[in-house]
Design a protein that fits this description.
The structure holds three protein chains of three kinds. By secondary structure, chain A is of the alpha/beta class. Chain A contains 18 helices and 28 strands. In chain A, strands 21-20-22-23-28-27-24-25-26 form a nine-stranded mixed sheet, with helices on both faces. A six-stranded mixed sheet of chain A has the order 6-7-8-3-9-10, with helices on both faces. The two termini of chain A are about 50 Å apart. Chain C is mainly alpha-helical. Chain C has helices at about 10-40, 45-50, 55-85, 90-100, 100-105, 105-120, 125-130, 140-165, 165-175, 180-210, 210-220, 230-235, 240-270. Classes of the chains: A alpha/beta, B mainly alpha, C mainly alpha. The interface of A and C includes residues 71, 86 and 134 of A.
């Protein structure tokens, strides 16, 4: 492996700017780090170059551990966004700089310089000063300069940011060709998704310091695993669908979705499906849909002609069976985006105000568990207050999902009934109070799978503690934790608690559980977590950790509502930290129940 | 825009870089800081301190008695009067010059700018000399002035003129680059909206340039009150009549009245320190010199 | 400003007229008087004033001393600017603000204060005296005063240049394998060289014309510690206007040459800068 990053973390004033990033890049690979500004990608690149120190983690270049090696001895070449050419030196002197430092003889330097100038198509420009060159030419000099000393790794920090579109394309091609010819491992940082697609062998998407997903451009586009990647790589409609025992469907009475690779779950739950605008078909009526599955009816709001494509926005009709969009829209109804090619426009022309039928050719269900939020309170004002909670607003806006309201006047009192579960999709949110554990137990008995308990005031999150009472809750808890942590820049720590009197031999099992948890988090969910092992009673150990500093959150996985009756109840009721309860019935129990 | 201030290239990032903190670099840093502090302490701090220590060297009573001297009081009055006349005149000039230069294009603009910079480049003695040559007894206008009973040189008008000459660039030099940088867009918008010339100036331009104007006025005032060389040449050193504070300091010093000299000096030093404080206040309010 | 279009802004006539009048009255007229007087002086009188041994000695001191002081300021100015731009230490902001003190302080005050500090029994003078270095009433004192007066120029021109040297350049040099000293020599110094030279020239010009801060510490011994401006004053006191004018003309000519040099240096510095983000 050419570049190995292992659990890199860099904090600034307590906030992780690069958060537990692990990555492996192969020899000769062109890897693109893609993300919005502030996602930590530039810091990560500079850390690889040695210009930025790390708080935690290891970097290895071609097998050599360079974590504590100064930048000048790492053998990397870095191309800067603003070129950083030495303006008092000529092009030739700029390119030869690295060779001069290494005391190469003038004749050899000249030879190498000519090679490089030829490589970047700037022959003859030796004696020019940077001020006499255009932006594109300056950038090419910067590339040549970075390659002069034959580095093992080439790093580019948003190199095309300051250039015009046409020049950018030409430069992209040049750099790609140069890279292929030299076979040098390359990492390029950008926020431009088009650029990433054009250049990368593999893309790594970053947000709020975390590396969310890595993969080939096509795979990330058609089969993203997270909301963020789905919406960042291109326009996407996020639609809430129901996934039952026989596969995903839009509404209770709709036919099944065409959804390749969907995972069948044990019970019906709400999921988020990604539908790309180009996979939406528009027709006059249900019968005229010929390449897609029926979704519903709607009214055309906006039609924009952009040359090769037509972009439309359609307001879906609201009806109980019609799926709703996950976007939290203040007016209540969200707009579906569709793009159509020329031949589709010729077949069926549309204009604003027209009623149309919508079909979906292909959808992709995201495996993320937190689909939407439903605020549950005993009266309307309490519900509104809860719906305005900063943490909830933050999460829902970043996850681009809805907050519904549900009034349950008898919160905590009614006997369980099967019907109630259907009206509480997604994650239920309740306010913390002394007896919140009984509220939570009631909700869980209604069939709710995730409960978010919010205290009235919660400081901004810096750390998330994860714990599960039983190994069978592990997968679901990690999935939920991964979903939360992708949208919040906080550290994640899994805490395992063994009884005080554990024998030394069994302690090693505890450690092994930690390792298992960590590797599952990484492999299955792309989440890097720390681990801690404590001894004693779970509730006390967790309380101690949570009390250490403000800004904590607890994600607790349980396998039966009864587990909440004991000491864990106090954890839930605390006014100091929010708690996310993840409940999946013990697998054996679930199997026996469905068999009955 | 990086997350939470971990700017690439900031001093913080530099500090965490691997291989950064070596023994040699720490040594270099300490010695450079040490040398700078020592150099400035000797050249700046010590003289600053010696002014006050000597002024109060014989106690507060002697210090205060220095200001009871009528000649000293006259000098203080003259300095204040000069500043009162010179600073507003130069402010008006500075505003006019900056307006003409920043807002219009015309031939000879660079010549004008060079001329404005001139008094700063030439020795104050020469500045004074110029006025003596014009208005002195044997100067160009000397005869005519004598015939009409007007004295300029060796009298207060001469002092004012010399001070005017020496300090007039200060306001202009602050305002010209500032107004050039700020551009004409807002004024043009005001005109098209129907505002008159003076209204545009007072409502649009003045608020934009107020910190630069204040900065220039502070500098102008400090120089006007403290000017020595030019005034020394034109004043004639007549005690109680044509001595400004700096000249009074010289007179007292030459008379070996050190306490007196440093007492007057302490006032001017306080003024200088106040000017510096005001300057940093203005800079913190967002005005950065180019 | 759009080319060729009549501007819509008012006040051109008024402001230009006023400015021109002011400048003519206050600057051009006096300069003309000086030039004419110098030009109309018979040659032998001219030479007597300008080339007398006393005058020549004063040139040696004024020009030579100013040059030396500017060199000292070049070195120390850079050190101070570097320290202020790169290091954090207690009192840094105060130190930064104090650099401007010689700008604000009246020259007479710095003159007597410097003398008090460096006189034979002064705070620092007594230690230097013991080491055999006499400051007051010697050339050393003159150069010291010249250094003080030029110091803010040396620091304030280099400081922004140092801060502006793109951090990227140093980072780039480091990734290319250069050690810190190499980066300093080959990247930083060349980039701030124009600013350093501008500061040098400004300090030189200021020290050349300085009067107030020098005459107290110098002792004004003819042929030894007499500066040219003082010589001009002496001529005036003797009502020898022609002699004064001749000497003044020499100094003015020198000032013009220096002004020209400054402008050329600043233009050179600007040409070397790369257009950012282009």
């Amino acid at each position: 492996m050419s570049i190995t990053l292992d659990q890199l973390t860099k904090r600034y004033q307590g906030v992780p700017v690069v958060n537990d990033v692990s990555l492996e890049i192969g020899d000769g690979e062109f890897f693109v780090l893609l993300g919005p500004s502030g996602s930590g990608k530039s810091t990560l690149l500079r850390a690889i170059a040695g210009l930025s120190g790390l708080d935690h983690g290891r970097i290895a270049l071609h097998g050599r551990d360079v974590t504590h090696v100064a930048a000048r001895r790492r053998g990397v070449g870095l191309v800067f966004q603003n070129y950083a050419l030495f303006c008092h030196m000529t092009v030739a002197e700029n390119i030869e700089f690295a060779l001069r430092v290494r005391r190469m003889r003038a004749a050899e330097r000249r030879q190498r310089r000519q090679e490089l100038l030829r490589l970047v198509a700037l022959e003859g420009m030796d004696e020019r000063l940077p001020a006499q060159l255009s932006g594109g030419q300056q950038q090419r000099v910067a590339v040549a300069r970075a390659l002069a000393h034959k580095p093992e790794v080439l790093l580019l920090d948003e190199p095309f940011g300051a250039l015009d579109a046409k020049i950018r394309e030409g430069l992209r091609r040049t750099i790609r060709e140069v890279q292929r010819e030299l076979g040098i491992t390359t990492v390029l940082v950008t926020h431009d998704q088009e650029e990433a697609f054009a250049m990368a062998d593999k893309i790594g998407v970053m947000n709020t310091g975390r590396l969310l997903e890595t993969g080939r451009p096509q795979d990330l586009y058609t089969r993203p695993t997270t909301r963020f990647v789905a919406t960042f790589l291109g326009a996407a409609n996020l639609i809430l669908a129901r996934q039952g025992t026989d596969g995903p469907r839009w509404g209770a009475r709709s036919p099944g979705l065409h959804c390749p690779g969907a995972v069948i779950g044990a019970r019906e739950r709400e999921v988020v499906a990604v539908v790309r605008p180009e996979e939406v078909e528009i027709a006059r009526s249900h019968e005229e849909l010929f390449s897609s599955d029926y979704l519903g009816r709607g009214v055309v709001e906006e039609v924009v002609f952009t040359g090769a494509l037509e972009r439309t926005r359609i307001r879906l009709e609201e009806a109980p069976e019609v799926p709703i969009l996950a976007h939290a829209n203040p007016e209540g109804a969200a707009l579906l985006e569709a793009t159509r090619a020329q031949f589709e426009q010729r077949a069926f022309a549309i204009s604003p105000g027209q009623e149309v039928t919508i079909g979906v050719r292909r959808a992709h269900v995201l495996p993320t568990p937190l689909s939407s939020f439903t605020v549950c309170a005993s009266n309307a004002s309490a519900a509104e207050r809860l719906a305005g909670h900063p943490l909830l607003l933050d999460l829902s806006s970043r996850m681009k999902t809805r907050i519904r309201r549900h009034l349950e006047p008898t919160l905590g009192e009614t006997a369980p009934s099967r019907e109630a579960a259907a009206s509480l999709p997604g994650t239920t949110v309740i306010a913390a109070h002394r007896n919140v554990a009984s509220d939570a137990m009631w909700l869980l008995e209604q069939g709710v799978e995730e409960v978010l308990i919010l205290p009235e005031h919660a400081p901004s999150l810096q750390r998330v503690l994860i714990h599960w009472t039983d190994e069978s809750a592990r997968r679901a808890t990690l999935a939920a934790s991964a979903s939360v942590l992708r949208h919040i820049a906080a550290e994640a720590i899994y805490v395992d608690v063994l009884p005080e009197k554990t024998a030394a031999a069994e302690r090693s099992f505890g450690f092994r559980d930690l390792l298992d948890a960590r590797s599952e988090a990484r492999v299955a969910h792309g989440l890097e977590i720390r681990t801690e092992l404590r001894f004693g009673v779970a509730a006390q150990a967790l309380t101690q950790l949570l009390d250490e500093s403000p800004g904590h959150m607890l994600i607790l996985g349980i396998t039966s509502a009864a587990q909440l009756a004991g000491e864990l109840a106090a954890l839930l009721a605390s006014p100091r930290w929010p708690v996310l309860l993840v409940h999946r019935e013990h697998e054996a129990l679930a199997r026996s129940r469905s068999a009955a | 825009m990086m997350a939470a201030g971990a700017q690439p290239g900031s001093l913080e990032e530099l500090a965490t870089r691997p291989g950064r903190e070596t023994l040699l670099s720490a040594l270099a840093r300490r010695s450079l800081i040490g040398i700078s502090v020592a150099f400035l302490a000797a050249l700046l701090l010590a003289p600053l301190a010696v002014v006050f220590v000597t002024a109060f060297g014989h106690g507060v009573q002697v210090y205060l008695r220095a200001f009871a001297d009528p000649d000293t009081q006259a000098a203080i009055r003259l300095t204040l009067l000069t500043a009162l006349v010179v600073v507003p005149a130069n402010t008006v000039f500075g505003l006019a010059a900056a307006w003409a230069i920043a807002k219009f294009d015309f031939r000879g603009k660079s010549l004008l700018i060079t001329l404005i910079d001139l008094p700063i480049a030439i020795s104050p003695v020469i500045s004074g000399l110029l006025f003596v040559l014009l208005f002195g007894m044997r100067g160009w206008f000397g005869a005519w002035l004598a015939a009409n009973g007007i004295s300029i040189v060796f009298a207060i008008p001469g002092i004012m003129l010399a001070t005017l000459f020496v300090t007039f660039p200060y306001v202009a030099r602050e305002l010209i680059p500032l107004m050039q940088q700020l551009g004409n867009d807002e004024e043009e918008a005001a005109i098209t909206l129907g505002a008159g010339a003076w209204m545009t100036f007072f409502r649009v331009t003045l608020p934009k340039i107020r910190w630069g104007l204040l900065y220039g006025v502070i500098l102008c005032n400090a120089r006007a009150m403290g000017e020595f060389g030019a005034v020394s040449v034109v004043s004639g050193h007549i005690r109680g009549l044509t001595n400004t504070m700096p000249l009074a300091i010289e007179a007292l010093y030459n008379d070996y009245d050190f306490t007196g000299a440093f007492a007057v000096a302490s006032l001017l030093t306080l003024l200088a320190v106040a000017s510096l404080v005001l300057k940093s206040f203005v800079e913190r309010a967002g005005y950065r010199r180019r | 400003m759009r080319e060729g279009q009549p501007t819509v802004l008012p006040g051109f006539g008024l402001t230009l007229g006023f400015t021109t009048f002011f400048l003519s009255a206050v600057v051009l007229l006096p300069l003309a008087a000086l030039a004419l007087l110098a030009a109309s002086t018979p040659l032998d009188q001219l030479l007597d004033a300008v080339a007398s041994p006393r005058a020549l000695a004063s040139y040696r001191l004024s020009f030579g001393g100013a040059l030396l002081a500017a060199c000292i300021n070049l070195v120390f100015g850079f050190v101070i600017a570097w320290t202020l731009a790169r290091y954090e230490f207690p009192g840094r902001k105060l130190m930064d603000a104090m650099i401007d003190l010689p700008f604000a302080l009246p020259t007479a005050v710095s003159g007597i204060a410097l003398t008090a500090v460096f006189a034979n029994n002064g705070w620092l003078g007594r230690y230097l005296d013991m080491a055999g270095i006499h400051v007051a009433y010697t050339r050393v004192g003159v150069i010291l005063a010249m250094t003080l007066i030029g110091m803010p120029f040396a620091v304030r021109t280099v400081q922004p240049a140092l801060l502006e040297v793109q951090r990227d350049l140093e980072d780039a040099a480091e990734t290319l394998g250069a050690g810190r000293w190499y980066v300093f020599r080959r990247v930083i110094v060349p980039a701030v060289l124009p600013a350093m030279l501008t500061g040098f020239t400004l300090a030189f010009a200021r020290a050349l014309g300085e009067y107030g801060s020098i005459i107290f510490i110098s002792g004004n011994l003819p042929m030894k510690t007499e500066i040219t401006p003082l010589l001009i004053v002496i001529h005036l006191e003797e009502f020898d206007y022609r002699g004064a004018a001749a000497l003044g003309f020499v100094m003015l000519a020198a000032s013009f040459v220096i002004l020209l040099a400054i402008n050329l240096l600043q233009a050179w510095g600007r040409d070397r800068m790369v257009r950012r983000g282009q």
